[in-house]
Amino acid sequence: MAILLAALCAGTGSASASMGADFDPATVRKLDAAITEVMKQTGMPGLNIGLWMPGRGVYEKSFGVADKRTGTPMKSDLYSRIGSVTKTFTVTGVLQLVDQGKVGLDAPVSRYVSGVPGGDSITLRQLADMRSGLFDYTTDKKWLDGVRADPHRAYTPRQLLDVAFAHPPNFKPGAKWEYSNTNTILLGMLVEKVSGQSLSDYLREHVFAPLKLNATSLPGDSAMPDPHAHGYTDFTPKGTVADATNWNPSWAWAAGAVISDLDDLHTWAPALADGRLLTPRTQAERLRTLPIGAVPGASYGLGILDFNGWLGHNGELPGYETIAAQLPAEKATLVVLVNSDIDYRGKNLSSMIGNAVTSIVTPDHLWPAPVAAKPK
What is d(CA 177, CA 80) in angstroms, rounded to the nearest whole number? Predict the structure, then answer.
């Protein structure tokens, strides 16, 4: 799930193209070769990818397998867990409440959610743009060991906050940028408190339905709808590979538990970037990104990344990785769905694909190449 983290090789695999005006044959060959090479190099099981660029073409393909046990080929209509792309939906819900005058971006979180250490000094804006200073519960080693040991356990949002708040804040609110899933859990709780609806119901009614995102949901349990891609992970006590498809995602909730598919994310990425569910004023607040420091050309706004002009988010959950982004400069949309989160030499799989693809089609607007994680 963490930002910029991040098996049966597809080989020739299954590559089924959608209808539409394709890119020129030379570009298609380059994309096919680049993606196939990354898959062979990393051993990722399968991949769905969509690239839509008005005036240049469509590239929508499925590679590899959705199920390593049966060899079932990957298909573009399969459901997938999308990890931290969830944050774009949760923060959109918060910003809708801002538009309705029900919450204030620069109001303290303590006005809406109780029990937050220093909550009188932490604003909703600082939660949404990852500048609150609150400890990220997903970096608590004891808690992580517990998730590895029992990935089917259900967690409540308040239990997640208890893990976070057992640690002192990492810095004063607004002092710097630091990714923390705790921030988005709090924002999900805020949506529930202010709207009077569960976060799942709120998003379905106010975010998913208006855009006809019929394959997108925030589940209340661990079940994956059919048809779906199986997800593979080494997030296990001994680092062995496991099928994480039906692991309980409640530990990610508002920060990472949404399920979607290629077609819905093709709709969502441009809607996120152009703000069609928000007022222009609030969308402008969302897009006021600030450099994050860790990656050249990367900045972060209110639940949205700007990677060299690509606006959107990436996501990672055990078994799955995702990119959903729009490049307004070329009205291009990129969606990547990988059914594995097993890093290759410390490098995130979806980012390897994103970088390989953008190196070919948008060399002036690269999706950042992943950097190998430093040993801890």
Answer: 29
Whole-angstrom distance, CA of residue 165 vs CA of residue 137? 8
Consecutive H or E run containing 188: helix 181-195
Burial of 12 (0-12, 13-18, 19+ CB in 10 A): exposed
Q: What pTM value is reported for the model?
A: 0.94
E strands along the chain, which residues?
46-53, 57-67, 72-73, 80-81, 232-233, 242-243, 259-260, 290-291, 298-300, 305-307, 310-317, 320-327, 332-338
- 3-class state of residue 308 by DSSP: coil
Q: Is 252 helix (H, G, I), strand (E, B) or coil?
A: coil
Among 253, 256, 264, smallest CA distance to 210 is for 264
How far apart (Å, rounded) are the C-alpha atoms in residues 113 and 352? 38
Task: With H, G, I as helix, E, B as strand and everything else as coil, classify residue 306.
Answer: strand
What are the C-alpha distances in Å from 317 to residues 79, 203, 252, 274, 321? 14, 20, 8, 27, 7
Low-confidence spans in the chain with pLDDT less than 50: 1-19, 375-376
Secondary structure (3-state) at 53: strand
CB 340, CB 128: distance < 8 Å: no
> Do 354 and 363 contact (CB within 8 A), yes or no?
no
- Pairing outcome for strands 305-307 and 310-317: antiparallel
Query: Is 326 in contact with 259 (CB distance < 8 Å)?
Result: no
pLDDT (tens digit per residue) in 12-60: 334 444 445 799 999 999 999 999 999 999 999 999 999 999 999 999 9
User: Whose CA is closest to 356, among 42, 15, 2?
Assistant: 42
Give the residue from 100, 31, 54, 61 showing the smallest Cα distance to 358. 31
The Cα 195–Cα 189 span in angstroms is 10
Q: Which two tokens stand for residue 311?
A: 């606006």
**Confidence (pLDDT) at 373:** 63
